[in-house]
Write a structure and sequence with these properties.
This is Chromosomal replication initiator protein DnaA. 54% of the residues lie in helices and 9% in strands. By secondary structure, it is an alpha/beta fold. The strands form two sheets. Strands 5-6-7-4-8 form a five-stranded parallel beta sheet, sandwiched between helices. A three-stranded mixed beta sheet has the order 1-2-3. Helix 19 packs across helix 20. The longest helix has 23 residues. The structure holds adenosine-5'-triphosphate.
Length: 465
């Protein structure tokens, strides 16, 4: 398509857009790997036409990075544009003249221009830290672990479906990802699909809106192992449940494996029809319980080793004795103590742990909500809650937003997608990225440590009133 004289070509606009995305804190590594697969086609009036080689990529672009791309392209072009993505299997994404990430050049330029599938264990949907190797086995999760391992070793054979349930922060997602990694490790050609049920819902709704039912079906039915997280979010969503029911049946009939997690057992899943609950019980149901003291200590020891931090036994024991019901909080406490010590160049010892964790360990059961966290964080940074949850990429907003997301993950039981919803409908990968970024920066930058600590203390103080 011809470019009007004087106007920038599509390629130029795209190159500048990639450049701006490279500088954006909202763009995660996963986003980047998908952005690389896009070929820009043309700008016609207010529409930007993009092409990708596969339905799966189109789906991701449309559900996960549409907003981000639309914003960046609109900024570049200087007016509000819409994006339209088409699938063309002959498409090779352009060789980026302006890289969108910091990947070493040899990796980008090696091989054909059409991106080869990543090695299985680099699946962007799976957290590389959640493997069987990093999972600590104890009496609270031994059975769930064994069942997960059996599924990964021979998917489609036994325990189909496998249904893992239990309270928040007890390792269900970790096990689900571990199944994904290990299945692929043993048989790289196995098609594994991990999805959170909120993503499944969005994907389904978008597929109806965009008339893409066929590609939706293909995405979820042409797999060997479907890992679906937090199924309780489908409660009461009739149409999505109906679709999931058909997906489940199609896979099960074809001898494919389905693994489901939930915060309650199938019996207690309200708003889900009996016929479906019965199916969930066809295979194996297993719960995960809060870990006992030994397991909590072992988890902390493993985490300390993985993060390469030194923490003596009595400190680990102190943390493990006081934080009992959620492994996410347990890990968060260790990070706080070791980060404080590193920043102050002090050794990690018991008295330091006691001081640092004073707030965390003091007993109060009052519920902390996302809006309390957002309100207090916004107040701390002197911005409004709308600004905090909005889309501005100025540094102070981004920092405040990321800290608030991190604290929501630490202090509430909200899932990543639910946290995203509280921040104006951000994608769960944006939340995941924010949590990781704050976690890393707490350990490296005193200012970040102090800010997070101060906001945390204010939240706790307010919730005690
Ligand atoms: N047995 C374990 N060994 C090592 N780490 C664990 C174990 N169980 C949980 N964790 C860690 O605890 C954190 C929370 O686990 P995870 O996200 O899997 O919980 P979940 O049960 O899926 O929670 P939610 O229902 O809130 O999604 C993760 O960082 C995970 O790696």
């Amino acid at each position: 398509m011809a470019t009007p004289p004087g106007a920038e070509s599509m390629d130029q606009v795209w190159a500048r857009t990639l450049d701006s995305l490279r500088q954006s804190d909202d763009v995660t590594a996963q986003h980047r790997s998908f952005i690389r697969l896009i070929k820009p086609l043309a700008i016609v009036e207010d529409n930007v036409f993009l092409a990708v080689a596969e339905d799966f990529t189109k789906n991701y672009v449309e559900t996960t990075i549409r907003e981000l791309l639309t914003r960046a392209l609109s900024d570049m072009i200087g007016r509000e544009v819409r994006i339209a993505v088409t699938v063309d299997s002959s498409v090779s994404p352009p060789e980026p003249s302006t890289p969108v990430d910091d990947e070493p050049p040899q990796r980008r330029s090696s091989g054909p221009t059409r991106t080869e599938p990543e090695p299985a264990y680099e699946d962007p949907h799976l957290n590389p830290r959640y493997t069987f190797d990093t999972f600590v086995i104890g009496s609270s999760n031994r059975f769930a672990h064994a069942a997960a391992l059996a599924v990964a070793e021979s998917p489609g054979k036994t325990y189909n479906p496998l249904f893992i349930y239990g309270d928040s922060g007890l390792g269900k997602t970790h096990l689900l990802h571990a199944i994904g990694h290990y299945t692929r490790h043993l048989k790289p050609q196995t098609r594994v699909r991990y999805v959170n049920s909120e993503e499944f819902t969005n994907d389904f709704i978008n597929s109806i809106r965009d008339d893409r039912s066929l590609s939706f079906k293909r995405n979820y039915r042409e797999v060997d192992v479907l890992l679906i997280d937090d199924i309780q979010f489908l409660q009461g969503k009739e149409q999505t449940l109906e679709e999931f029911f058909h997906t489940f049946n199609a896979l099960h009939n074809a001898g494919k494996h389905v693994v489901i997690t939930s915060d309650v057992s199938p019996r207690n899943l309200d708003g889900i029809e009996e016929r479906m609950r019965t199916r969930f019980e066809w295979g194996l149901m297993t719960d995960v319980q809060p870990p006992d003291l030994e397991t909590r200590i072992a988890i902390l020891r493993k985490k300390a080793a993985a993060d390469d931090v030194q923490a003596p036994g009595d400190v680990l024991e102190y943390i493990a004795s006081n934080i009992t019901s959620n492994i996410r909080e347990l890990e968060g406490a260790l990070i706080r103590v070791t980060a404080f010590a590193a920043l102050n160049k002090q050794p990690v010892d018991l008295s330091l742990a006691q001081v640092v964790l004073k707030d965390l360990i003091s007993d109060d059961d009052s519920e902390i909500t996302a809006s309390t966290i957002i309100g207090i964080t916004a107040d701390y940074f002197g911005i409004s809650m709308e600004e905090l949850t909005g889309t501005s990429r100025s540094r102070v907003y981004v920092t405040a937003r990321q800290i608030a997301m991190y604290l929501c993950r630490q202090l509430t039981d909200l899932s990543l997608p639910k946290i995203g919803e509280n921040f104006g409908g951000k994608d769960h990968t944006t939340v995941m990225y924010a949590v990781k970024k704050v976690e890393d920066q707490i350990a490296q930058r005193r200012q970040m440590y102090n800010q997070v600590n101060e906001i945390h203390a204010r939240i706790k103080q307010q919730s005690r009133r």
